[in-house]
Amino acid sequence: MTKSKDNLEKTRELITEQSMKDLLTKQLEIVGSGGAFVWAIFFLCVTPNILNGFHVSSYTLLGHLPDDQWCGVDALQHTNWTLAEKRSISEYELESGGCTIWDWDYEHLARMSYTSALNYTRRMAQINKPTVVSCKTKGSYEYAQPETTFVADWELTCERSIQRTSAQVALSLGKFCGSFSFGILADKFGRKTSFTLGAVFFIAGSIFCSFTPWYSIFLIGRFALGSASSGLFYPAFTMIVENICLKHRTWMSIAFSASYPVGMILLAIMGYLIQPWRYLQLALTIPSLLLILNCYLMNESPRWLITKQRYNRVYKILFGQPCHYDIQPTIATATEISTDKKTLATATNVSLAQKLKNGPLKSIIELFANPKVRRYIFTSYFMFCVTSLSYYVTALNAANFSVSRYLYIVATGVVDIPSYVVPVIMLRYTGRRITTMFLFMLTGVSLLLVLSVPAGSTTWIVSFAMLGRFGISATYSVVTLYTAELYPTEIRNSALGTCSTWAHVGSISAPYVVDVLGALGWYIPTTICGCCVLVAGLLTLTLPETGTDKLSDKVDDAPAVESKPEKQ
Which residues, listed in sequence order, are joined to residue 134 by a DSSP beta bridge? Predict the structure, then answer.
């Protein structure tokens, strides 16, 4: 046994580090061009994004306002009056949706017949109209189909309606924090490590939302789901971009983004079949347990492992067998030995700031230290923020139309799916930069065309809203791919993560743009988005073309604006 191990050690060949890198990179290009390796990465990375479509859009079904709401006056509960009769007295001519009622002596009215009570209140109202009081002073809120929304469970209406909105805000804040932190974790500790942590957050958040009796814990669960959605999305997307050849990279990255509306369509179907909101939340939670299988089967990104000099592990992933090479040690010169000794002598005196600079914050600092990369990152931030703002403003404007919420979610998903097909065709012939600019311009013009539509032309407004959503969805997928290819491997996830953070600034701002500025003029939100999108399209011209076979690994190798697209 000992002899066989010794023989294995003797058969290991010495190879220079650069030769090892070249060997592994060449093998990655071979296995990344097709076969089981490519399809395994694709399915393990795409399926979790369907779950993102579940939970990020579930607020529309789980937290919708009740179809009808009224005030259940305690003193009238035991009368033989119908619900309509009770409301005709307590809410007569009030349009508060059951939030307020008239301050009658309801105990006195309960001893009368309905006809007598009606005549009495009408006569007294002409003499001395009573004051309007909150429903809570005389009874409690009652709802039509209260089991279909968490609004009824925690009475998130009337004066507490802002707390209903906090469920969506918690999710957006979670995505905001998650996109930043998970991006750094993925660059520092690996794509799979970040993905696994995101899966843990996703499962825990889903369970919290399904079973908690307290709204505060429900919000924590929503925050965890938001942060986990970034933890699942960006490491998985980066795995596809940096390990699959250009031939498959384009359509697989678009298909990855298209899996999100597939989740929305499935959500609408499940929501239609499962009406109680807790059962629906549980139905959305069960598939998330499959993430355990994804984490078990997924390998770490070979390209990331190469940059971290973990060659034995990369070799085993790519060749399917243990590595039989040893890295040939380099002979240090006397000057290098002297320098190493000085470094060791001063290592104990390194400040905390220096440790942070060379540790967790290294990839963030590198985003801004290089002038060329710094210019790219600021442009990317604006592009992501504007794209997200326009996406959610369009969604919120369309949601105000009187349509079934199930049909609306399905329609949104159906519109989104073909919006990912158009970029696949365009990217094949026009490259990343021209495609991105064209889609920005198309979206901007579509949104500005709303200005030419009269306020009463609902059909045309809806048509332009859906066209705007189509355009911005197509833009979103291309911008994500473009950004992933624009930055080197060692800072790619940090770039994507911080760009996503700015995207969530746009998504958090969208409700305020719609509600506050929309109150001043229904056309203002789309006009603002249209102008910003056109500016983003022009800024795209300052970025380089990235549609080449080779991705850069080091910051100094970042592509220049002068680089020209290659035919694909």
Answer: 100
Q: Is residue 283 domain-shared with residue 369, that is, in the same domain?
A: no
CA dihedral 223, 224, 226, 228 (to 10 degrees): 160
Report the candidate in 318, 246, 250, 300 with the shortest Cα–Cα distance to residue 25: 318
**CA-closest candidate to residue 265, choices 132, 418, 162, 371:** 418
Separation in Å, CA 171 to CA 106, 219, 252? 43, 8, 27
With tokens 């440790």, the residue in question is 355
Total number of domains constituting the chain? 2
Query: Do 250 and 177 share a structural domain?
Result: yes
Place of tokens 């650069």: 18
Check residue 562 and report its DSSP letter.
T
**How would you class 565 by CB atoms within 10 Å of its CB: exposed for 0-12, middle for 13-18, buried for 19 or more?**
middle
pLDDT at 360: 54
List, as one string, the DSSP characters of 58-105: THHHHSPPPS-EEEEEGGGTTSS--HHHHHHHHSTT--STTSEEE---
Distance (Å, whole) CA 87 – CA 70:
8
In sequence order, the β-bridge partners of residue 13 are: 325
Per-residue DSSP letter, 130: P
The reply to whether 428 and 371 lie within a common domain is yes
Cβ atoms of residues 393 and 471 within 8 Å: no
Q: Does residue 266 contact residue 53 with C-beta atoms inside 8 Å?
A: yes
Q: Is 274 helix (H, G, I), strand (E, B) or coil?
A: coil
Shared-domain flag, residues 373 and 489 = yes
CB 164 within 8 A of CB 147: no
In sequence order, which residues have a C-beta less than 8 Å from that of residue 308 and are 6 or more positions away?
A: 190
The 8-class DSSP code of residue 1 comes to -
pTM of the model: 0.75
Selection from 475, 414, 418 nearest residue 445 by Cα: 475
**What stretches in the chain show pLDDT beneath 70?**
1-12, 17, 56, 328, 330-364, 366, 396-403, 455-456, 458, 515-516, 519, 548-568
Whether 35 and 176 share a structural domain? yes
Residue 94 lies in a domain: no
CA distance 526 to 524: 6
Distance CA 522, CA 160 (A): 26
> pLDDT tens across 57-69, in order?
787 788 887 888 8
Q: What's phi and psi for 332, nearest 5 deg?
A: -80, 140
Q: What is the CATH number of the domain that holds 160?
A: 1.20.1250.20
Domain that holds residue 452: 363-560
Q: Are 48 and 287 in contact (CB under 8 A)?
A: no
Residue type, 33: S
Q: How many helices (H) and strands (E) does the chain have?
A: 26, 6
